[in-house]
Write a structure and sequence with these properties.
336 residues; alpha/beta; D-Maltodextrin-Binding Protein, domain 2; five-stranded mixed beta sheet; four-stranded antiparallel beta sheet; 15 helices
Length: 336
């Protein structure tokens, strides 16, 4: 029995009639109100049996709202028992989606686009976070402060860390270098998970890292320098990441998908209206200090996906060889 229901039933007198209730000092109106409250707790539980949904996560700031929602039982209150599965990135998560090990993959949309371009039945069910329109932003290229590298065009002959080859960071880092009139001919890209990038830079195992929050902000106090906010430089307001599933699972679980997306929308709105709660959740789930947190730029959280924005991502993926064939963005996005 949930807490609200237990508290309500505890104060309602044990009587078989409203006359008995009246003798104990309760008005009929008060009893009816209390019983209505109890029923409001019971009905959702009866309407939505708990459905287990395994979702992927990575230790970056954009996953904090979902973790907050799980902590506060926002999903459970809508009949969704959401379980977290740690993955190395969107492409690994999408492999787990295809095998059925998880139902919803969090990450950039490049993995879904790549699978769709090969004919896979993939659906983007919701957005999650967008880049900012102006710097500072979470997506950045970071170098050692003493490296002598001042801008992207200086990365010729250098090694850049990305969390996954052919993903959104890889694509937009490459495109940002071209926009700075740099050459990609001698640039090397190396895969590494986000949490290890800054220490690898310090140990001179690479020359630059394409990062996201909280690691972009952590770099500001660690002897590093940001030379580009890649998403803002290439495509301000980019739909950076969201939630993707297998098409057959979405069709067979449409109600659960709608509930999941509805909870996300309410979560994002709640955290926009209560920024202190968001900051406290970020402190619980990241390595950020309170001082750094108050200095950082947090992505805009949103479930909406711009078709034009996604199509531009697809076009850039094709341009840089991340996919071999184009995809119609409209065929990828779930419609409520």
């Amino acid at each position: 029995m949930n807490r609200t229901l237990a508290k309500t039933m505890a104060v309602v007198p044990s009587c078989s009639s409203l006359d008995c209730v009246a003798r104990q000092g309760w008005s009929r109106r008060a009893v009816i109100a209390a019983l209505a409250c109890a029923l409001s707790c019971i009905v959702p539980a009866l309407t939505h049996a708990q459905q287990v949904i395994r979702i992927s996560t990575i230790p970056i700031l954009p996953t904090v709202p979902v973790k907050y929602g799980i902590e506060k039982q926002w999903f459970k209150n809508q009949g969704l028992n959401v379980e977290l599965a740690m993955t190395a990135g969107a492409r690994v998560a999408m492999q787990a989606v295809m095998t059925g090990d998880i139902q919803l993959a969090f990450g950039s949309f490049d993995a879904a686009v790549a699978l769709k371009s090969k004919g896979a039945d993939i659906v983007i069910v919701s957005g999650n976070n967008r880049a900012r329109m102006l710097p500072p932003d979470g997506g950045a290229v970071v170098v050692r402060a003493d490296s002598g590298i001042k801008r992207l065009r200086d990365l010729a002959g250098k090694t850049i860390l990305v969390n996954s080859l052919y993903n959104v960071n890889w694509i937009y880092t490459r495109e940002a270098i071209l926009k700075d009139r740099g050459s990609l001919a001698s640039v090397k890209f190396r895969e590494m998970e986000f949490p290890h990038m800054l220490s690898a830079l310090s140990a001179q195992q690479a020359d630059a890292a394409s990062t996201t929050e909280p690691f972009t902000s952590l770099s500001k106090n660690g002897g590093f320098q940001i030379i580009s906010y890649i998403y803002v430089d290439v495509q301000p307001g980019l739909n950076v990441a969201g939630w993707t599933a297998r098409g057959d699972w979405v069709r067979n679980n449409r109600d659960a998908v709608l509930r999941f997306k509805s909870v996300l929308q309410k979560l994002f709105e709640h955290l926009r209206q209560h920024p202190d709660e968001l900051r406290q959740a970020i402190l619980r789930h990241t390595q950020l200090t309170e001082k750094t947190l108050y200095e950082m730029a947090i992505d805009e959280f949103a479930t909406e996906i711009s078709i034009a924005d996604l199509q531009k991502q697809i076009d850039l993926a094709l341009k840089h060889g991340a996919i071999d064939a184009s995809v119609d963005a409209r065929a990828l996005v779930f419609r409520d």
